[in-house]
Write a structure and sequence with these properties.
five-stranded antiparallel sheet
């Protein structure tokens, strides 16, 4: 090439300036944070009193099925029968 650059096909002269794209850097800062020990599990509930006919209990034992006999609801729990009463569940005879 001889002489000066006059642009493509003789149109104008000069430089083409392209802007560089902005570059973003992502950083993740990790800091060690002490973790408190988990709280101990709550103590187990006190042992349930033995099944006694006529006694009222705060709750039913696990694995109960609700049965309806002549419009009354009973709970059958592993061979024991209960009826809902104010303040809990009363141990009753099989309906």
């Amino acid at each position: 090439m001889h002489g000066h650059f006059h642009g493509a096909h003789g149109v104008g002269g000069g430089f083409v300036i392209l802007e560089a794209p902005e570059v973003y850097y992502e950083r993740e800062i990790v800091r060690e944070v002490p973790v408190a020990a988990p709280a101990p599990p709550p103590p187990p509930p006190p042992p349930r009193k033995p099944y006694v006919l006529g006694r009222t209990y705060d709750s039913l034992p696990g694995g109960c099925m609700k049965m309806v006999e002549r419009g009354a609801s009973y709970f059958h729990c592993s061979g024991e029968w209960y009826r809902k009463v104010p303040g809990g569940y009363r141990a009753v005879r099989q309906p």
